[in-house]
Design goal:
Shape of chain B: elongated
CATH class of the largest domain in chain C: Alpha Beta
Largest interface: B-C, 43 and 59 residues
Number of strands of chain C: 11
CATH superfamily of chain B: MetI-like
Order of helices and strands of chain C: HHEEEHEEHEHHHEHEHEEHHHHE
CATH architecture of chain B: Orthogonal Bundle
Strand content of chain C: 15-25%
Number of domains of chain B: 1
Structural class of chain B: mainly alpha
Number of strands of chain B: 0
Chains: A alpha/beta (352), B mainly alpha (322), C alpha/beta (387)
Strand content of chain B: under 5%
Helix content of chain C: 25-40%
CATH superfamily of the largest domain in chain C: P-loop containing nucleotide triphosphate hydrolases
Number of domains of chain C: 2
Number of helices of chain C: 13
Structural class of chain C: alpha/beta
Strand order of the largest sheet of chain C: 6-7-8-3-9-10-11
CATH class of chain B: Mainly Alpha
Oligomer: heterotrimer
Helix content of chain B: 55-70%
CATH architecture of the largest domain in chain C: 3-Layer(aba) Sandwich
Chain lengths: 352, 322, 387
């Protein structure tokens, strides 16, 4: 498993400790949106990486920049009003932001695929699902109509759609929400990409269906040894499937950790607050802990640590100095692989 | 409700801290007027003020309205006063703007400039009059059909369909043929008689959208009556598309009037209209193009100004359409 | 609150309805209207049933044809639902999309006309009320909506939105007091009273939901029906709103019907929980009975599917993955509606509709499994706690 090793918001070249470059690496990415009311800084120096077979969960609330980062990776950001003033997005070591349009198009869909939250609006309502699934093969691989349809049926079977042969000519609206999400997954899988980015793939689904779809996604990832970036706000979904987690707040990563570590002992007050504020199914709690205040306005992110107005531990330094993502260690200084926290007081948070 | 009054800030615990000073504001809070109330109409006006297109068209239209209201300010020549010695005379002397003969003379020796100035009134009156009539009739019917639905909607929608099926100009001609007198109000009637359908449809669909909104359900749950729901909740939220369609259509009505007058079915001679002058000017287009050029140019400019204004208003009211 | 005793409030089954606390069911005429209003205005005792729902049915007709519409079927959104809401308690209603839980909310608010069945509010059947009596009911039953972005009129100021209930029910507050009352309400829900002249779009989602709650509180109601009140909010803001709702419940002695699909939140806030599936109540009981001792297979599947925010629970938890989709409510399965997806289904399930009652095998016992469950083969199974 890859270690998230950046210690500062300034990107440092990877040391040659491993011969495998990660599948995808985002370095010091910044994204801005120019609006009538000013410049909204949606992403402010994000670093993360994913390797083959690994699941990175990007956790954050609305406005944390988690989806914008994914859109920047896919190259589907609306520009303008969006712009990427600095940063790199490395696919197998190559910066996608400096590539030509043609080169980038070859990666998109073929090497990196995306699954969206709203499957109904992501599918074309006037074309049959078989046609849409087959399109990938016809366009990218030049297969005939008939061969493409056979491939489409195969894909539908792979994502466990019952009676695939009979339903290949049905239209998106004839499928239920869960089935449509499966079709989206099938589409993303069509060209056997190296990396799948799933943006809130189960948020719109019912709980019983949610479990089915997440299981399917996890199985397929294992089967094809793909990298998976799972973008979500649901701490429950993350706990079920992720290997490592990056928690985002106001366009920055505030904490990274392997999944078990994060839930056991969070090293950032925001993560701790989130974990404390969700009610549990298996126990009847007392009053919920609530993070006070509101998510920040991206047009004027608070100075210093963006979380300071809502943080119970905030000191003067938090209002002036932006904390960098420091490596988190045990009390005796033993390194905790993969852990980092962008808090001036991470020691107190994790050990205190 | 005395309990509410007694509860003061002490009840609001830390976790519920009001986002007062220091707390980050919502992302919706915007530019200079930070913290001040900003209504959606206010936002639209802010947007509009920052569009050059809005200002160009507004200044143009303001000027045209002044011309229409006080033509005497712009010329002292009687537009009906023909002097055949001036037959098709052109005398464009640069530098002498607003001189009665700057645009030249038409076939009957009348000052084209004076005729263009006096013709403005008919065009603006027809445009504004038809738009007002159409908005009232179409808006009212569309609102009733959309809000009450059921058989009322069926009846109004079918009537709308029937009227929509009649070709606009052809229908107007038929109506105008029934009148011997060709005054401005007759033309307004003829155009409004057939023109209300598009507004009715727009209003109906936006009322249907608005009445399904949760805030309407909330008002019903409070026990609000039909009148309150309609005028406080549905109408204010259904107005915007109607305003846009009406503004853009205004230009269209002006050109429709000109077309009818050109065909000899709209306004008739003692009334001065660009359409009539275009008709007369087009008879001798080869040798004396100026007699056609000036009224036609004014007509285009006016229609253009209204459509431009409509576009600006649409962009301001519905940024999603951009 | 004190757990309602089972002998008193619970009907034996939807077929034979025992409805205590009901004084009259007659048609309302002018003479009885005043009596109805008086009954509605009377204060409710703590622990008494304040709302009694009996065999509530709502079918939406499916029609064909443009001019001459003829009915070709019906979507059975709610098909015979019965439950009680006790004064001061929170009744959670959970279920997946399309189970009819939101239709129940609209029926309780008299926003839809019930096809059949009764809803007794303090003994008055609100499905048959009109005029003055209905207005009195509306003052006492309020609603908080799911989407804070569409439930506030974007063209009205916050002051006008929260003050509107006073315009509709002028007897509640004299005109001069209203502005002050609106500011007090803003304060109660944790918003700055100076924001009274702002517009909804100037607030974030959580703040808007507070405005919606303030509007619901304005008339000092006894019952608030919350239809997914926090599902559109961010996690960190959800907790704030849930805490606020609990605080207000204590402060104003409110009874809540809390409709949601998030089972964890429902457990947190509810005293009793009802589980709905395809227009019917599958199981109802106290939160411990439902979450720790579920007896209906659907409840068990639902609970087992909820992701638990604890990676340690990945292993050791049994997960019941249901096959297939929820059938269409226009054409529900015969007998038990859940049988098409149930692993326990037998012939009996296709023939007999299971009644919502305490399963026979548990009737004489005092275990927490002895609560109402509409299953022929009800059987306890703890799915929430890892074994």
């Amino acid at each position: 498993m890859t270690i998230i090793e950046e210690t500062s918001s300034v990107p440092t070249p990877r040391s040659g400790d491993s011969d495998t470059t990660p599948l995808l690496e985002v370095r010091d990415l910044h994204v801005e949106f120019h609006t009538r009311d000013g410049v909204a800084k949606a992403v402010n120096g994000v670093n993360y990486s994913v390797s083959s077979g690994e699941t990175l969960a990007v956790l954050g609330e609305s406005g944390s920049g988690k989806s914008v980062t994914a859109q920047a990776i896919m190259g589907i950001l609306d520009m303008p009003p969006g712009s990427i003033p600095q940063g790199q997005i490395l696919y197998r070591g190559q910066d996608m932001l400096t590539m030509s349009y043609e080169e980038r198009r070859k990666i998109r869909g073929r090497k990196i695929a995306m699954i969206f939250q709203d499957a109904l609006s992501s599918l074309n309502p006037v074309l049959s699902v078989g046609y849409q699934l087959g399109e990938m093969y016809r366009v990218h691989e030049g297969l005939s109509r008939k061969a493409a349809k056979a491939k489409a049926i195969e894909l539908m079977e792979r994502v466990n759609i019952p009676a695939a042969k009979a339903r290949v000519n049905d239209y998106p609206h004839q499928f239920s929400g869960g089935m449509r999400q499966r079709i989206m997954i099938a589409m993303a899988l069509a060209l056997e990409p190296d990396l799948i980015i799933a943006d809130e793939p189960t948020t719109a689904l019912d709980v019983t269906v949610q479990a089915q779809v997440m299981d399917l996604l996890a199985d397929l990832q294992r089967e094809f040894n793909m990298g998976l970036i799972l973008i979500t706000h649901d701490l429950g979904v993350v706990a079920d499937v992720a290997d490592k987690i990056a928690v985002m707040y106001a366009g920055r990563i505030v904490e990274t950790a392997p999944v078990h570590e994060l839930y056991k002992r969070p090293a950032h007050p925001y993560t701790r607050g989130l974990l404390d504020s969700i009610p549990r199914l298996d126990q009847k709690g007392q009053e919920l802990y609530a993070i006070k205040g509101l998510p920040p306005n991206l047009l004027k992110i608070p100075a210093g640590c963006a979380f300071n107005p809502r943080c119970p531990k905030a000191q003067d330094i938090c209002r002036t100095d932006v904390p960098v993502l420091d490596p988190v260690t045990e009390q005796d200084g033993t390194e905790l692989p993969g852990r980092g926290s962008a808090c001036h007081f991470w020691k107190e948070t994790i050990h205190g | 409700m005395p309990d509410v009054i007694k509860t003061k800030t002490d009840a609001t615990t830390d976790a519920l801290a009001p986002p007062a000073a220091g707390a980050p504001e919502s992302a919706a809070d915007g530019h200079k007027s930070q913290g001040k109330p900003r209504s959606l109409w206010g936002d639209a006006w802010y947007d509009l003020r920052h569009r050059p297109m809005f200002w160009i068209s507004s200044i143009l239209l303001l000027f045209l309205i002044v011309v229409a209201a006080f033509p005497g300010l712009f010329t002292s020549v009687d537009p009906r006063d023909g002097d055949l010695t001036n037959h098709f005379l052109t005398k464009p002397e640069l530098g002498s703007f607003f001189q009665p003969d700057w645009f030249g003379y038409d076939g009957q020796g009348r000052s084209i400039y004076a005729r263009v100035v006096y013709g403005t009134r008919a065009s603006i009156l027809v445009g504004v009059g038809v738009t007002a009539a159409v908005t009232i009739i179409g808006g009212l019917l569309g609102m009733l059909a959309g809000y009450f639905g059921g058989w009322l909607d069926s009846i109004i929608s079918r009537i709308t369909d029937i009227f929509f099926g009649i070709p606009f100009l052809l229908g107007a001609m038929v109506v105008l043929n029934a009148f011997t007198e060709r005054k401005v109000y007759v033309v307004i009637f003829a155009l409004a008689f057939l023109g209300w359908t598009s507004i009715c449809r727009v209003m109906r669909s936006s009322v249907i959208t608005a009445k399904q909104a949760d805030y309407v359900t909330a008002a019903r749950a409070l026990g609000a009556g039909t009148k309150r729901i309609l005028f406080r909740h549905v109408l204010p939220n259904a107005m915007a598309p109607t305003i846009v369609v009406a503004t853009i259509a205004l230009g269209g009505y002006i050109s429709a009037e000109a077309t009818l007058s050109f065909l000899g079915l709209g306004l008739a001679d003692p009334t001065i209209s660009w359409g009539i002058d275009i008709a007369q000017g087009s008879k001798d287009i080869r040798d004396n193009p100026h007699a056609l050029f000036f009224p036609a140019g004014m007509l285009s400019l006016t229609v253009f100004a209204f459509i431009m204004l409509g576009d600006a208003v649409r962009d301001a009211l519905d940024p999603k359409l951009r | 609150m004190a757990e309602p005793s089972k002998t008193e409030g619970n009907p034996a089954g939807p077929a034979e309805v025992v409805t205590p606390n009901v004084t009259e069911v007659a048609e309302i005429d002018v003479a009885t209207e005043s009596a109805a209003v008086a009954a509605i205005e009377a204060p409710a005792e703590r622990g008494e049933p304040i709302l009694q729902v009996r065999n509530l049915v709502k079918h939406f007709p499916l029609t064909q044809g443009i001019l001459f519409k003829r009915q070709v079927g019906a979507v059975k959104a709610v098909d015979g639902v019965s439950f009680d809401l006790y004064q001061g308690e929170t009744l959670g209603i959970v279920g997946e999309s399309g189970c009819g839980k939101s239709t129940v909310a609209r029926l309780l608010m008299t926003l839809e006309k019930a096809t059949a069945g009764e809803v007794f509010y303090k003994g008055q059947d609100i499905t048959r009320l009109s005029g003055r009596a209905l207005k009195a009911v509306r003052r006492n039953i309020q609603m908080v909506f799911q989407d804070p972005y569409t439930s506030l009129n974007p063209r009205m100021t916050v002051g006008d939105i929260i003050g509107e209930p006073f315009d509709i029910h002028p007897e509640v507050a004299p005109k001069g007091d209203r502005r002050g009352k609106v500011q007090d309400l803003l304060d109660v829900v944790g918003l700055n009273p100076e924001y009274i002249n702002r517009y909804p779009h100037q607030f974030s989602g959580g703040q808007r939901q507070r405005i919606g709650i303030a509007r619901g509180l304005a008339l000092n109601p006894e019952v608030i029906i919350c239809d997914e009140p926090v599902s559109a909010l961010d996690v960190s803001v959800q907790a704030q709103v849930i805490n606020l709702m609990e605080k207000l419940q204590d402060e104003f002695n409110l009874s809540y019907i809390f409709i949601a699909h998030d089972l964890s939140i429902v457990r947190h806030i509810s005293d009793r929980v009802g589980v709905m599936y395809l227009g019917k109540m599958a199981e109802i009981g106290t939160d411990t009975q439902i979450y720790d001792h579920p007896t209906h297979p659907y409840t068990q599947a639902l609970l087992s599917a909820v992701p638990v925010p604890d990676p340690e629970a990945r292993t050791g938890r049994e997960r019941i993955i249901l096959s297939g989709d929820v059938p269409s409510p226009a054409n529900p399965p015969s007998g038990c509606r859940f049988r098409t997806r149930c692993w326990k289904a037998e012939d009996k399930c296709a023939k007999e509709v299971p009644l919502l009652a305490i399963p026979e095998r548990f009737v004489s016992s005092t275990t927490p499994a002895a609560h109402e469950s509409a299953c022929h083969f009800a059987e306890e199974k703890n799915v929430v706690h890892a074994v």
